[in-house]
């Protein structure tokens, strides 16, 4: 049975890609994401499922609680995806949306979600890759909806806080540096 690894609201910040911004994923959306990841792990028989931002920061993970290296794993998976983008450019492709890595004991299937998040599922040799691909596609569609909600919530917060904060800051600066 998959075990939640992280369950609180997450602030996702990227320092590696200028297209990525600081983003807060609210606790209620984390819960929806975790339910999606648990369903994917259960339906595929996957050992571990991670959702990352493109910089490799783990948003949430479900699965084998014995894995304690998820931060390093997230960074390496994001690095693999970044490397594949460069290979795609050399091949005159826009990018590669999915990657499959086959190991002796475990396989990894990685899928890009709307150019911002990375979904990674680790599964054993007994699981058919076709099943993983089909169910991962459904999960990425579901997670795209969540990502859009997170973006909209962030935009609404930025609109409210942006103007209010700016006005407050200007007033404070005026008070501090009055002649």
From TrEMBL:
Record GO biological process: positive regulation of TOR signaling
InterPro entries: LAMTOR2-like, Roadblock/LAMTOR2_dom
Pfam families named in the record: Robl_LC7
Molecular function GO terms recorded: guanyl-nucleotide exchange factor activity; molecular adaptor activity
Domain Roadblock/LAMTOR2: 33-123
Source organism superkingdom: Bacteria
PANTHER family xref list: LATE ENDOSOMAL/LYSOSOMAL MP1 INTERACTING PROTEIN
This protein's name: Roadblock/LC7 family protein
Organism the protein comes from: Roseiflexus castenholzii (strain DSM 13941 / HLO8)
């Amino acid at each position: 049975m998959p075990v939640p690894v992280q369950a609180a609201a997450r602030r996702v910040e990227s320092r590696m890609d200028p297209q990525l911004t600081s983003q807060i994923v609210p606790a209620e959306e984390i819960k929806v994401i975790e339910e999606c990841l648990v369903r994917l792990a259960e339906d595929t028989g996957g050992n571990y499922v991670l959702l990352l931002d493109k910089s490799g920061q783990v948003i949430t993970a479900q699965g084998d609680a014995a894995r304690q290296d998820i931060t390093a794993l997230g960074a390496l998976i994001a690095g693999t995806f970044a490397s594949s983008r460069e290979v795609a450019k050399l091949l005159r492709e826009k990018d590669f949306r999915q990657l499959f890595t086959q190991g002796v004991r475990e396989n990894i299937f990685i899928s890009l979600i709307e150019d911002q998040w990375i979904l990674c599922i680790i599964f054993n040799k007994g699981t058919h890759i076709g099943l993983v691909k089909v169910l991962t596609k459904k999960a990425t569609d579901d997670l795209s909806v969540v990502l859009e909600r997170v973006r909209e919530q962030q935009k609404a917060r930025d609109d409210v806080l942006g103007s209010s904060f700016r006005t407050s800051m200007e007033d404070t600066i005026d008070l501090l540096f009055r002649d």
